[in-house]
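RECORD CONTENTS
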Amino acid sequence: MYWQKNDLVLLISPDGKRFLVKVEERKFSTHHGDIDLGSLCKIKPGEVVKTHKGVSFFTLKPTLYDFIHHLKRHTQIIYPKELGYILMRMGIAPGAKVLECGAGSGALTMTLAWWVRPHGKVFSYEREERFAKVCLENLRKVGLSEWVELKVKDLEEGFDERNADAVFLDVREPWRYLEQAWKALKGGCMLGMLVPTTNQISEILKRIEPMPFIEVEVMEILLRRFKPVAERLRPFDRMVAHTGYLIFARKVWTRTNAPKDNPSCS
């Protein structure tokens, strides 16, 4: 199958530079010369395209990992090392109804939308309109906006939705929205949060302890890469270490001080 018009293509240069482009009738300038993007329709994924200087670039089908690393960013993003665990820990699956607060540049929003397709939906809340615009632009670029409803709204008023399969809070003071998250979740479903500092974790733990949540988990995920050279296999000299702490908890109904809400509301 040849590349088609409007396909997104990952170009990789001989020196490892990576570019995300769309198949269209225009020239794309690189440090090795210009590439005629329209000519991609004559080759297949995995083959090479040459610049006007004769330098070969691999043409590859981009993955979600590639999309995340090519986001237009105005805020710090959640990295793939956390994103994968979030998906599994919170049970995100096709058809799920997921609520998110703190869309930012859209890394988590994009990941959630990718997994809830084709019949699920992500309801994403962002207080800053400028960040919401960037998030929506990124979603449209990779064709995922159909599965996201983006709302410019302060969560102090609570989520509009009920019976969510999962809720994730990526905001500075997530403890302020624990009750809103509890009301929006289905019984037995997961709340997730991400914060950058330990004092924020302590505040969350203080606030969540008397609430009807169980299986509270706090963790940090580190990723250590190795140099892929068989004769000199060793870790890279540098690594991205701390990026954030993850906190998870599961909603239950048994506490007598549960927030008042009707669990049958949709």
Summary: The helical segments are 64-69, 80-89, 107-116, 129-141, 178-184, 198-208. The chain has two domains: 8-62, 66-251.
